[in-house]
């Protein structure tokens, strides 16, 4: 694992959850305020270890104010999200991301990329095909009959950018 000295960059648009479906939105969402070390009240300040590195609790979502990559804290390691699709598929909300001064992330190690959980239903913004993500592969669902046969719910479909879905490996169509 390497120390942070540069940030992976990917475009994360804000997301709005409505009716159980995640939709990417480019407008009408206020970005989280930047937090600097001096602005964190002592009572809300994350603990620091002996070398001065901030210890965020597991599950905390952070992004350096000078970067675009969002990280999830897990076991004293920062795990980067590689796309908006991965972020949304993990049930995260952009309103929960803490935008922090880059100095608060110094000293952290970068871990493995966050992955899309198995059994996630995904659909591109401009394509009505719903896919089941399983084992790192998308499986197309050819009809509502097949969708119902597997007991899926339309409220669990996550709508993602077309490019994110196109970049994923495609597997067999469900039958």
Report what the structure shows.
This protein is mainly beta and 175 residues long. It has 2 domains: 14-42 and 51-110, no CATH class; 120-166, no CATH class. Helices cover 10% and strands 30% of the residues. The protein is built from 3 helices and 14 strands. It has helices at 84-89, 144-149, 162-166, and strands at residues 14-18, 21-25, 34-35, 47-48, 54-55, 61-64, 71-74, 77-80, 97-100, 109-110, 120-124, 130-134, 137-141, 157-160. The protein has a 6-stranded mixed beta sheet with strand order 3-9-6-7-8-10, with no helix packed on it. Strands 13-12-11-14 form a 4-stranded mixed beta sheet. β7 (71-74) and β8 (77-80) form a beta hairpin. The protein starts with 13 loop residues before the first strand and ends in a 9-residue tail after the last helix. The model is unreliable at 1-45 (pLDDT under 50).
